[in-house]
Amino acid sequence: MKKRPLILITNDDGIYAPGIETLKNSLSELGEVIVIAPDIQRSAVSSALTIDKPLRVYKVNKNGEFFGFSVNGTPADCVKLAISTLLQRKPDLVVSGINHGKNTSINVLYSGTVAGATEGLIAGINSMAVSHSSHSFDLDLSYAGKITSRIAEKLINNKNENKVLLNVNIPNKPESDIKGIKFTKLSSSKWADKYERRLDPFGNEYFWFAGVYEITSSDPDTDDFAVDGGYVSVTPIRLNMYEENSSFVNNDFLELI
Amino acid sequence: MKKRPLILITNDDGIYAPGIETLKNSLSELGEVIVIAPDIQRSAVSSALTIDKPLRVYKVNKNGEFFGFSVNGTPADCVKLAISTLLQRKPDLVVSGINHGKNTSINVLYSGTVAGATEGLIAGINSMAVSHSSHSFDLDLSYAGKITSRIAEKLINNKNENKVLLNVNIPNKPESDIKGIKFTKLSSSKWADKYERRLDPFGNEYFWFAGVYEITSSDPDTDDFAVDGGYVSVTPIRLNMYEENSSFVNNDFLELI
To answer: Cβ distance B32 to B5 under 8 Å?
Structure first.
């Protein structure tokens, strides 16, 4: 008998966040799901790996039932540890999320949510990162779960040799106001970096990151434009950061040595 | 009078590593250098940002003289904090390194060294990450410093509106054995992930990352091939991780909603 698809789930808000519960529930109809996720909030950890301390794995219950495994590491750690060591077979799909807060444009670089899914693609598995535009933990995510499940099904059925990594962002709107789904590219918008200088109770200086994400691009083909306009945004992500079109590759360099 | 170029230096091995000392010494001939770097070893932190605790900045002396500022954060934190808050003017160049250990192929994704330079490019500044193939802290890095300084000079003089991020890897060979310098692309080689399962003194299980970087690509145009063959490898890096050529973008998706 053919085994049901195995779906590995992780996130960066930590195993106790509501978004990962929605994700597990909504993907359970598609196959066998297993949750291996950070024990605590790990936002903005990017593709960081834990190499200076060992990882611990613990069973976590929710609502009196086994929910998944927590790891004292990053989303990338969770997926690497799961695929290489903890799981009995290779997953058919890796899904990271549902993140509380959207991950568009340059945020793909910083996001732990995306990094978890990136490790799926590195391991040769179709993968997706899913983020919801609201940061609230008290939100009805049922529509987000539903659309995630539909895209996940497409990914499980994707038999193309070239695996894909999709970055999905879901608008913070009721289902009736969702206008559709769009393939997008990453926006060029960035953070306006700012740090607040404060003094601790002993008069010593410290700095809090207080940057603001500024949408400076109005390109209608981009993820921000789609999500903010009420569309579910789906952006294919690549691993290779080689710049093919660098203006700087020239023969001058040959004289250097 | 025209000001000397301002060069911001960071790394991921921490401000006390020898590589960053070589870097500071070798770039001092090109302009005013300022070191703002992590207080401790921060390898494999990728583009992680510290958002859950404040950052502290301390003056660090070496050999009885002021050397630079330490930050209890990642390389990306250091460069963001420096450019947005600590520095009086915008740097003309950001250089991260010299890392003890090469950063080729997929390691660009994990490397804190590269992430430090990436923040330079994000801020619109020509930037470079420099890594040496040896992990040893007891090595003569004078050649590495020399070639870094030459490439840095080219970058300072690059007046192109499109700024560049260069990932430089230097072979672990004496200067007389260096064959030249090559522009390369990133190799497709990856890590064979592995975790060692151990028991602590109380009999509780833990996992150590014990992955091995496996060179599976023999493409002569790649960074690994160049460095291992005795060439200094220079790879232009892009920020945008959008996959233009995804096999998966198709109209089926339009039916989803």
So the answer is: yes
Q: E strands of A48-100, at which residues?
A: 57-62, 65-71, 93-100
Report angle CA B85, B86, B92 to the nearest 5 degrees. 95
Nearest to A23 by CA among A120, A162, A149: A149
Rounded CA separation B125/B137 (Å): 29
Rounded Cα gap, residues A170 and A232, in angstroms: 5
Q: What is the pLDDT along chain B (257 residues), one digit of tens a residue?
A: 678 999 999 999 999 999 999 999 999 999 999 999 999 999 999 999 999 999 999 999 999 999 999 999 999 999 999 999 999 999 999 999 999 999 999 999 999 999 999 999 999 999 999 999 998 888 899 999 999 999 999 999 998 899 999 999 999 999 999 999 999 999 999 999 999 999 999 999 999 999 999 999 999 999 999 999 999 999 999 999 999 988 777 656 656 65
DSSP H or E segment with residue A208: strand A205-209
Q: Provide Rg for chain A, Cα atoms.
A: 20
Q: Which tokens belong to A100?
A: 């509380």
Name the A residues in 29-88 with CB < 8 Å from any B CB: 41, 43-52, 54-57, 76-77, 80-81, 83-85
Tokens standing for residue A195: 């740090």
Contact list in A for residue B188 (CB cut-off 8 A) is 240
Tokens of A76: 């990338």
Quick check: A10 and A110 in contact, CB under 8 A? no
Cis peptide before A178 (omega within 30 of 0): no
The ipTM estimated for the assembled molecules is 0.95
Instruction: Provide, as residue numbers in chain A, all residues whose Cβ is less than 8 Å from the Cβ of B211.
Output: 80, 84
Residue closest to A72 by CA, chosen among A47, A30, A108, A38: A38
Q: Which position has the token pair 């260096």? A: B178
Nearest to A34 by CA among A9, A59, A3: A9
pTM of the entire predicted model: 0.96
Report the Cα B251 to chain-centroid distance in Å: 40
Compute the distance between CA of residue B194 and CA of residue A83 in angstroms, rounded to an integer: 9
Within 104-163 of A, beta carbons closer than 8 Å to B belong to 106, 108-110, 115, 118, 122-123, 147, 150-151, 154, 158, 160, 162
Query: Can you tell me the distance from the alpha carbon of A188 to that of A106, in angstroms, rounded to the nearest whole number?
Result: 7
Pairwise CA distance, residues B199 & B221, whole Å:
44
CA atoms within 13 A on the CB side of A35: 31
- Of A253, A172, A240, A112, nearest to B157 by C-alpha is A253
Other beta carbons within 10 Å of B196: 11
